[in-house]
Amino acid sequence: MLDYVALGILIFVGITLFYGVIAIHDIPYEIAVHRKHPQQDAIHVAGWISLFTLHAIWPFLWIWATLYREDRGWGFSSTAQAAAAADDPRLQALEQQLGEMQIRLAALETPTSPPPIETTPAAPELPRQEG
Question: Is 64 within the bounds of a domain?
Fold first, then answer.
């Protein structure tokens, strides 16, 4: 009877370890889903591949999944800082100067008319000789 109990425990531990390894390798994918990562499918596939590469790329998948955030994308600044930079008076002055320079450049670049095409008169037809 104890042999069957030991066999049952051994099978239960084996199944639990197998499921645990798969669940651990899905952590980067779950992070990517939570952060609405644009490359979640690639992270998921790479997680499965890392099972077959003896977990060599799994730490890099974790880093890849945590780099992206929906509120700031790949960058390190928040959108509030980007909005504050857009309200900067120096930036607005530069944009105004750029617009004025583009208008001046467009005024200087007037299209030139092509040279007139010279046409030569057609040669008169000579009378045909019958013979």
Answer: yes
Residue 128 lies in a domain: no
**Biggest distance spanned by C-alpha atoms of the chain:** 130
Which pairs from 32-38 meet CB under 8 Å and 24+ separation? 32/65, 32/68, 35/65, 35/66, 35/68, 35/69, 35/70, 36/70, 37/65, 37/68, 38/68
What's the pLDDT tens digit per position in 52-88? Answer: 888 899 999 999 999 998 888 887 765 556 666 667 8
Q: Half-sphere exposure (CA, 13 Å, Cβ side) for 59?
A: 1
> Does position 128 have pLDDT exceeding 80, yes or no?
no
Sign of the torsion formed by the C-alpha atoms of 74, 75, 80 and 85: negative
Q: Is residue 85 part of a domain?
A: no
**Residue numbers of the domain that contains 54:** 1-72
Confidence class for position 49, pLDDT limits 50, 70, 90: very high
Q: Is residue 124 a part of any domain in this protein? A: no
Prediction pTM value: 0.54
> How many domains are there within the chain?
1
